[in-house]
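The records we work with from here on pair a chain with its fold. The integers have meaning only within a learned vocabulary of local backbone shapes. A complete example follows; check for yourself that the lines match position by position.

:::
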Amino acid sequence: MTDGQGQEPRNNENAPVDWQARGALSRLVLGQMATQALGAAVRFDVFDRIGPGTLSADALAGSLGTHPQATLRLLRALAGLQLLSEPEPGLFRTTAAGDFLRTGTAGSMAAMARMFTDPVMLRGWDLLDESVRTGRTTFDTVFGTDFFGHLKEHPELSAAFNEAMSQGTRLTAATVPHHFDFGRFSTLVDIGGGDGTLLASVLREHPKLRGVLFDTAEGLAQAPRRLADEGLAERVALETGDFFASAPAGGDLYLLKSIIHDWDDERCATILRHIRDVIPAHGSLLIVEPVLPATVPADPPGGVYLTDLNMLVNVGGRERTEDDFASLCTAGGFVLRSVTPLPAPNIFQIIEASPA
């Protein structure tokens, strides 16, 4: 049947509806509301206040000084998101997923949740349309400076970012030492390694290896405590610097984890060339990043394409394919040798390159 003008109608309102697919779409439409509810909850320390037991909405409101009914409605929204359960009316406990939003628990994501629901991370997304139109970050437009410049001006936020990055690295840190032969090297230089979470994990597994942790003063702020807690302070030299200006000499293995995706191709090539200037001929470079497939698979790795958009909006970098990494290595004076996926649920891969 046509619409009277010889055209088939675009929609058939009597056709069967895939309600499961429609429900998935509804969850996406409401996704920003879920993010805001989660953000409010972590800022109120809801999950830590409930702890391993139960807590009533009235008791939580009393401790927070918040409106009792509004507090109940927030907690019920969190239960609807399966982060809390409500075994009795007005009484709540954390679920298995909600447990990861408590600080101090194994695998905690509390710092990540706090950082990635912070208005500083979200406001640039309000201008995503502009980023897509222009290819430029919108963080700079909103805040009048670049993302890392903003962190430098706000030490508390910088510390929160460092802790979030540390939490986000822990799964990778537990895996990387077992999927590369670190034992054939003597000194590992971690470029932009933050508090040393990944470096510490590698050094624990390879007691003959020494380390150099290289980052800005802000990036290294929590490193001394981390390394001291790990009993590794004597095996790691801390060096403050700017990887756009130089890289420290003295290593035979150089590591970049979650650095390359922060920057455009030109700046990435600059980082790689500085490493190429100091790495010995027999040395190796490891880049630990997600590696995008050439086309989006039917079961895409969770979140990596949203992370790619976050790089566009907030910092100006991007996620890359294997061919992209090969081109970057060539531009930086390296030859890509291998790409080793880490086992699920890790989305990172180990890219090894040698001096050209």
